[in-house]
């Protein structure tokens, strides 16, 4: 840690005490309280009959941009810090407001507030926030939010009384509620006749450089004229009074500070105690110049100011806020501001759901001890999945991104770029407008389970031994309900979602010792025989305290944004487009242009083979087809807008295909098909399903694209556990038969090595896209099980290294701290296994498991997931499925372009229609219409296609 940071923390520790014992523990509390304030905004908005407004200080009788703050010439020497210099003068924005979060008449009992933004330079400003009572009704942020929730939406005297005398005591206790009520009564019984005649107190402390903590206040300058008796029936009398006053003269306040004395008389953490023993020291004058605040220019300025977000943390380190309430303000004000501006969202849970869901969830948990969810009758199994997902959302979303704790001062943030409100960035920034880095390239992988990092067991048991005994493909085991397009599809998707950065060859590497007696390994082409396997290590993210690298960044964005097609940065994206800024993607005779290594130019090129080439070619063509349709429908639309809209459409179509076609194909049960279609379209129109969701999870009564974004328990990211369950390499066969689709004639039989890397593109151009799709459509992939890992992937060259991917999969999972199988299973709320026999009934597998592992707790995650007997119809294990249940809806629900911004105004009506009516079959037939008769009639394009049987004369026998 830098010396400056150490001094800063030591300085803070003189005055501040963190709730929960640490800045990080306190941060988690504040994040929860911020969400609760967003719910307060919604209730206040409903009460006011409008949309979401400020959580507090909703109505501003005065807002001006042309105020000035000037420090006194005789500013005390020890207060001359930063921008506080004798005689220095700065422009300021001033907003004087009523404190309530509901816009009401100025005569209503209420506090008043002042928000001042002092502009020092283009990048430096200081927000000063104050309220017209010396102390807060709340000691800390928890009490403050409890009061806000108790009074949310209260307009009538009866509603306010119920909040004060029933809700508040239930939230904070009777003694605390009594104290808070007394403070509020004392603050609001004061009659306000003019905002210019009020004194405004910061209530919380701020640092004033080396002078230490101060509280500040704004009081009327000497000579301020008293107000005339107001017409209290006029709901806007405070505005009229100050408008009339400003029409005649300036309005001037003195900025004063009170210095910290000691923790008893001037506490920093307790905002409910007045600093009565601290002398008031004037330091500056704030002048609002005489003007007509009702003219058009002034009204426009007031509207601009109303749209601003004030936050005491918009300052510099020398003036950072102090104390619990002030520390909470950064997260709270940021969240409520983003909510008000439509950048962040919250979906309150109905009371019936909050009351009924927990006991129902517990009942299903008890039932599942005896009857697994997939063996229940269909309506119950669907409801069971709802409660399983609720549990997983609450307990299995772990944020790993290093967060700011304690909060730090910052400049006023720039608003989101206007163009990124309606188009995706290439690197994933601004996927969430309120948190620009969420899910972007470089953002860390989250966790569904706490990491279990055990370096002492990295090589126990030896991963090469595990691979040879349990993963080696003894014979090809097909998945007969699928075709090879399903295998190509999932790799196509994984390339969009996840990629760990590796060190360059020759850099830090992993060494795996070979077991005794085995053949040696060549780590590089033509390299020496060695007794270790060696491959590039992942690049970890540094974490505080020099802890081991269990945190890794994603080199692609976490969002479902088609980055495998379009690229993850603007330079790549521009390279892939038609020349001269054309909207389409570059194609050569319908195929992707080839790069210098023989691999096509596209968004993601790793691990290239003919199946990937088919997918990339198909969706590059689809992008161009969308562009052509947009140009025809909207002739005035520019090429950049056409391109960006087509990106949105194709990305959403890909997400829909994966949700309602690929996943139900690999999890072939009626319950999963209905559940995933519900994710996209909403539940079936039968009263039982509708009633169940209405009672327990009303949020699911609509398809996710018709809801608001919701990250649930943690900011959005994909997870290391998600990466683990998507290790589906057994899907890849070792050899393929390429056929032509007209007569079913075999063209050639090839091995994976023959259609891999630079060899893929010549082969697909020779074969043709239609024949390639047909060949893969009639062939089965491998089953996701033990003893079925592709031989071709156990010895292939990548980046100048020869690797065994089966060994790499085991090693990566261990080194990334993913728990071993039994802990993984238990962490996903399944009963632990106590014996190898509980995992599998296969006698040969049992023997090998017992030879390799000393106990069931040693079993590797990947091995256990492959060994499980899956539910009927499932292509993979129930344990892996639980990560799918959680993350399948999360990838949609978190993404604003698949929720609140999935609308005609952004996608165009044509774009929405394209996604809603489209699917994998429509994509294939748009570009290969000759395949129409071969696609499955009553199944997805990922089910086996009809095979054309060749006849002796070279024709076909249908």
From TrEMBL:
Cofactor: Ca(2+)
Source species, domain of life: Bacteria
Hydrolase found in the keyword field: no
Biased composition (Basic and acidic residues): 1-15, 416-426
InterPro entries, per the entry: A_dioxygenase (IPR034815), Catalase_sf (IPR020835), Haem_peroxidase_animal (IPR019791), Haem_peroxidase_sf (IPR010255), Haem_peroxidase_sf_animal (IPR037120), Oxylipin_biosynth_metab (IPR050783)
Keyword Repeat among UniProt keywords: no
Keywords: Dioxygenase, Fatty acid biosynthesis, Fatty acid metabolism, Heme, Iron, Lipid biosynthesis, Lipid metabolism, Metal-binding, Oxidoreductase, Oxylipin biosynthesis, Peroxidase, Plant defense
Stretches the record annotates as Disordered: 1-21, 399-433
The protein, known as: Peroxidase
Organism: Streptomyces glomeratus
